[in-house]
């Protein structure tokens, strides 16, 4: 009976895999990747529950609780870093549960998934950090060739150099330093481990936030500005943001015959000839957007001001606060922009424009540094506690442990 059910689920899953792209082609929003992932998750959950029912056990309720906890936290407020932590907690508990289920059932599907996961984890354990360093050097070269040598474009190179120095020092420190000094040196790897966990949580929620599917009921689409080329020309990254807004504008207009207003947000920098929002407006008009459907906000200097000043314009235009709005930016900037919208008390989620793959590692590093600086006091306290713990252990090693 169990084999027949496995075959049945497999057939149903494959039918969905082929039908979902065709189904999405008939929709205004033709993106199908989110629905493929959702379909796989549903089929896998049904399959796991079937295995539990055959065993007359209900341990699947444990990871289910943490999944529901994540969904509750996420849909209550998507723009929170803690959501990444809750989701990763669900993943750890879910993987532990699946491991125990594999031991109890020796199910072939779980065995294949466990094998793939095990190989990946072993590779990550043995060559992960070294592979990361090599990748960072390669990515830094590509970014510098295509984007220039500004400090913002050197983040992957600086991280690669830092990790290289750490690996060399870490290798020789255990052989040269006394044990108490090695404990002091342990402040660095522990702090690095802490920030790697923070980065992983940030990256997790940033990826999840990319799956926003706003309804075609928006009154405004805010386009967040960035710098201009030669003080007057829209650069490719900013162009992608505008094009994403234009795409949603046209999709909603076709679906509902109710066109939203596109609000270009960006002031005039010291080295710019015109306000960013005016250059953005001209770009959108060239893409076929009627001028009467474009608003401009010309005073903001950063993303937080983008959100605050745009909110004021939308309230004045709409005649109240009961409007629906989204914002567009590049995908790597999406989650941090959402945090700024929350800080501005603006109820708006974002949709992200695609960015060249080679640029993403550097861009996400920049976003992470900005996120860390937003909560620097918290991180300083935790790093201080790590340092204090290791100093106390080093003192105990120095004074209490007898030398031979």
What does this structure look like?
Residues 219-369 form the DUF218 domain. This is DUF218 domain-containing protein. The chain is globular and about 80 Å long. The model has no long low-confidence stretch (mean pLDDT 90). It folds into 3 domains: 2-120, no CATH class; 131-209 and 377-400, no CATH class; 220-355, 3-Layer(aba) Sandwich (Rossmann fold), CATH 3.40.50. Strand 4, helix 12 and strand 5 form a beta-alpha-beta unit. Helix 5 crosses helix 6 and helix 7 (179-185) runs antiparallel to helix 14 (376-400). The chain has 14 helices and 5 strands. It is of the alpha/beta class and 404 residues long. The chain has helices at 2-25, 33-55, 61-76, 82-105, 108-147, 155-176, 179-185, 187-209, 236-256, 276-286, 303-318, 334-343, 360-374, 376-400, and strands spanning 220-224, 261-265, 294-297, 325-330, 348-353. A 5-stranded parallel beta sheet has the order 3-2-1-4-5, sandwiched between helices. The protein starts with a helix and ends with a helix.
Question: How are the SSEs placed, and which strands pair?
Answer:
Layout: H1 2-25, H2 33-55, H3 61-76, H4 82-105, H5 108-147, H6 155-176, H7 179-185, H8 187-209, E1 220-224, H9 236-256, E2 261-265, H10 276-286, E3 294-297, H11 303-318, E4 325-330, H12 334-343, E5 348-353, H13 360-374, H14 376-400
Parallel strand pairs: 1-2, 1-4, 2-3, 4-5
Helix pairs in contact: 1-2, 3-4, 4-8, 5-6, 7-14, 8-14, 11-12
Short structural summary:
This is DUF218 domain-containing protein. 69% of the residues lie in helices and 6% in strands. With 404 residues, it is of the alpha/beta class.
């Amino acid at each position: 009976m169990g084999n027949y059910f496995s075959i049945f689920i497999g057939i149903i899953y494959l039918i969905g895999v082929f039908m979902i792209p065709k189904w999405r082609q008939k929709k205004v929003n033709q993106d199908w990747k989110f629905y493929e992932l959702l379909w796989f998750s549903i089929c896998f959950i049904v399959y796991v529950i079937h295995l539990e029912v055959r065993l007359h056990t209900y341990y699947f309720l444990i990871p289910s609780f943490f999944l529901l906890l994540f969904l509750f936290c996420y849909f209550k407020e998507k723009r929170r870093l803690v959501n990444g932590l809750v989701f990763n907690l669900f993943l750890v508990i879910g993987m532990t549960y699946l491991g125990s289920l594999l031991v109890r059932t020796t199910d072939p599907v779980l065995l294949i998934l466990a094998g793939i996961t095990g190989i990946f984890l072993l590779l990550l354990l043995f060559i992960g950090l070294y592979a990361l360093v090599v990748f960072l050097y390669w990515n830094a070269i590509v970014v510098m060739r295509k984007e220039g040598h500004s400090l913002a474009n050197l983040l992957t190179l600086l991280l690669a150099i830092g990790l290289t120095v750490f690996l060399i020092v870490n290798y020789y420190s255990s052989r040269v330093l006394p044990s108490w000094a090695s404990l002091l040196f342990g402040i660095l790897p522990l702090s690095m481990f802490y920030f790697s966990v923070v980065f992983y949580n940030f990256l997790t929620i940033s990826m999840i936030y990319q799956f926003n599917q706003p309804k075609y009921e928006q009154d405004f689409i805010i386009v967040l500005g960035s710098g201009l080329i030669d003080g007057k020309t829209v650069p490719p990254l900013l162009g992608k943001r505008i094009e994403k807004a234009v795409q949603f504008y046209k999709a909603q207009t076709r679906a509902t015959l109710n066109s939203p207003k596109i609000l270009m947000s960006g002031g005039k920098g010291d080295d710019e000839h015109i306000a960013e929002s005016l250059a953005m407006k001209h770009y959108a008009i060239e893409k076929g957007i009627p001028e009467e459907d474009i608003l401009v906000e010309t005073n903001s200097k950063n993303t937080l001001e983008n959100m605050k000043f745009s909110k004021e314009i939308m309230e004045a235009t709409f005649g109240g606060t009961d409007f629906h709005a989204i914002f567009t930016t590049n995908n790597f900037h999406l989650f941090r922009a959402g945090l700024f919208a929350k800080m501005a008390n603006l109820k708006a989620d974002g949709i992200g424009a695609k960015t060249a793959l080679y640029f993403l590692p550097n861009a996400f590093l920049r976003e992470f540094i900005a996120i860390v600086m937003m909560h620097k006091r918290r991180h300083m306290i935790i790093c201080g506690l790590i340092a204090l713990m290791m100093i106390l252990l080093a003192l105990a090693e120095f004074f209490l442990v007898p030398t031979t």
